[in-house]
Design goal:
Length: about 350
């Protein structure tokens, strides 16, 4: 069991609070506010290219000189299946028609995986953010060694002990224990393998007991009491995502914010239908579509996400937000609206309370 204090020193932060990267929701302004308030601010660059990542890092540094976590996606590059993709388009056609729109004629791989993105690696080696974190698996050892040689602290997400051991074998500095409660994309290495669906606290305790690396608890944690509970189980810090979705600096649109404050917050759903990988979302029209869909029917990530984004855009144009990727964890009903810095200050004060 690694010392929690060691993790704070490693990350160069004051409080054991990490704002989850949340690609498409978090912003450099959010990350800077969190870091300036003593936590670790994060940006997700899995949905942008190298130039976009460079701009995001520069924007963060205009607002903060503190630690930044840059998160990359390490999924297997997509293998197109034209027949499967055509069937999925036809399945969604009635939804597009309802909105007075036509579906895409074909689907494409909209994001490159970090495992093959040399330009993204070059940006990280040039910019040297304090922290780089991996989601959906690991890149090749030579990429890990290059990042480590640049003095970058490395984190990796695990949803079970086997994944955590693979991260340790790859020499990451700390492991993010992502429980099944967590919002957004499940960090499983293989989305088609059986998922033990371990909860945050059970997983955290197992990893703390089995690993010689610091563990970061993630999933369903929304307030100081949740952070304290994770720390008592031996975690070195807690990572919070949904807690920051409603903050002022979030890119969440009006429909997403309204849904987070609605009854949908009490009914989050794990679905593949939106993107092609399992992800926890507020209950909405898209999760209803995915309720009876076999995993094998949805195009692989991120090809499937091309259809999901097109449907959301068509809905948004008509004032219908129910097709959005409204990622949220099971703690969603505890969401609070305020600037990110104020939320970090509140979390810290709640932790200090008896």
């Amino acid at each position: 069991m690694a010392s929690p204090k060691k993790l704070l020193e490693l990350l160069r932060i004051e409080a054991p609070i990490i704002q989850a990267p949340m690609a498409g929701v978090s912003t450099p302004s959010m990350a800077a506010a969190v870091s300036n308030a003593g936590g670790l601010g994060s940006i997700g660059v899995g949905g942008t290219d190298a130039a976009g990542a460079s701009r995001m890092i520069a924007e963060f540094r205009e607002k903060s000189r503190r630690s930044l976590n840059v998160n990359v996606f390490c999924h297997a590059p997509a293998r197109a299946d034209a027949a499967r993709e055509a069937r999925w388009i036809e399945r969604l056609r009635p939804e597009f028609a309802r909105l007075g729109a036509a579906p895409p004629g074909a689907l494409r791989e909209i994001y490159r995986s970090f495992v093959e993105d040399d330009d993204m690696l070059a940006v990280l080696l040039r910019e040297k953010p304090a922290v780089v974190s991996f989601h959906f698996g690991l890149p090749a050892r030579e990429r890990i060694e290059a990042l480590r040689a640049a003095g970058i602290v490395l984190l990796g997400t695990a949803t079970n002990l086997a994944e955590a051991r693979a991260l340790v074998a790859a020499d990451v500095d700390a492991v993010v224990a992502q429980g099944y409660e967590a919002g957004g994309h499940r960090g499983v290495f293989d989305p088609d393998a059986d998922d033990d669906r371990l909860g945050t606290f059970a997983l955290t305790r197992v990893l703390v007991s089995e690993l010689d690396r610091p563990v970061i608890a993630a999933g369903g944690i929304m307030d100081g009491a949740g952070i304290d509970a994770a720390l008592r189980l031996g975690a070195g810090a807690a990572q919070l995502g949904t807690a920051f979705v409603g903050c002022d600096e979030s890119q969440a649109d009006a429909g997403y914010r309204a849904a987070l404050k609605s009854d949908a917050a009490h009914h989050t759903v794990m679905t593949r239908a939106i993107s092609g990988r399992p992800a926890r979302c507020l209950a909405n029209r898209f999760t209803a579509i995915g309720r009876n869909v076999a995993s094998s029917d949805v195009p692989v990530y991120p090809i499937g996400y091309d259809a999901g984004k097109a449907l959301h855009a068509a809905g948004k144009a008509k004032g219908e937000y129910g097709y959005g990727a409204q990622w949220a964890g099971q703690g969603a009903p505890l969401s609070r609206v305020m600037p990110s810095a104020d939320l970090v200050a509140l979390l810290r004060s709640e932790m200090a309370s008896p």
